[in-house]
Amino acid sequence: MKTSLQKIEAFLKDSFPELAASLNPPASEEQIQALEDALQKPLPEDLKNLYRWHNGESKSFGFFFGLPFLSIEDALEEWKTWAEIADEGNSNLDSAVISIPSDFVKENYANRFYLPIGKDYGGNNIAVDLDPAEKGMYGQLINSGRDEEMRYVIALSISDFM
Predict the structure, then answer these.
(1) What is the pTM of this model?
(2) Per the count of CB atoms within 10 A, which of 12, 116, 137, 160 is most buried?
(3) Partners of 152 in the beta sheet?
(4) 60 exposed, middle or buried (CB, 10 Å; 0-12, 13-18, 19+)?
(5) Across residues 94-121, what is the average pLDDT?
């Protein structure tokens, strides 16, 4: 993963200097631990390494498919909103959700163990799945949110995605 991040950094500096300049300094180990404490789940090592590389973006340039890379603080804020929705529970909304591939993502409208790392500011996220379905992988990258009935596995890990 370190090599991938170095290549991405070099590419951004050469081709998209504004985006490269918007990347925040690395997260501290204390910030990473605080996120794990709030989630009450361990973070995948590759996600920790991503935050050790840069703690998100300071502007909304869109590191992930045009969506901004959320800092730990922003990810935690977005997560709290979705955790509250998940805790309320609403099986009527769950019935529209489909996992692609089948049985990789739990078919819930909201899940308190989806950690948003990118968002569109319209209620949709790219998230790290810390509660996968039977065939899924802990730490897989998925789409989630209010307009995302089809939950796709974008990548089986942050490392694979990068």
Answers:
(1) 0.93
(2) 116
(3) 100
(4) middle
(5) 91
